[in-house]
Amino acid sequence: MISLLTISKAQKLLSEQLKARRLQQGFTQEGLAKRSGVSLPTLRKFEQKGLISLESFLKLLMVLGSLEDIVDALKPDDETFKSIDDVLEDRPQKLRKHGWRT
User: Fold this and answer.
1) Non-local CB neighbours of 44 within 8 Å, separated by 6+ positions
2) How far apart are CA 96 and CA 102, in angstroms?
3) Is 39 helix (H, G, I), strand (E, B) or coil?
4) Residue 6 is inside which H or E element, if any?
């Protein structure tokens, strides 16, 4: 099974899930940063760009909740492909807007 999830997409999904969990639990960025021991600029950078060290990420998870819920965000939807042929077959065919040049 081949996952088409890129690293940048995974980072974005993780940061969105963590931010949603932060808001759901009623934490401000400042409050979560203080409680977790992660600096406020690091937390802001993570929520905006998805960039964070593993240590800081784990500190945030220790405050907000379980790792399993956050990582579930990375599981692909039903669109998993077994080969590149499956990807090419699934791709919609483009309709030409103009005729061929002669």
Assistant:
1) 29
2) 15
3) coil
4) none
Contact 32, 50 (CB under 8 A): no
The length of the chain, given as a count of residues: 102
Q: Can you tell me the distance from the alpha carbon of 61 to that of 63, in angstroms, rounded to the nearest whole number?
A: 5
Domains defined along the chain, listed by start:
7-90 (1.10.260.40)
Give the type of residue at 25: Q
Q: Residues near 27 by Cβ (< 8 Å), separated by ≥ 6? A: 35, 63, 64
Tokens of 28: 């401000």
pLDDT tens digits for 39-93?
Answer: 999 999 999 999 999 999 989 998 988 777 666 666 766 666 677 777 667 666 5
For residue 47, give the H/E element and its range: helix 40-49
Give tens-digit pLDDT for 6-39.
Answer: 888 889 988 998 998 899 899 999 999 999 999 9
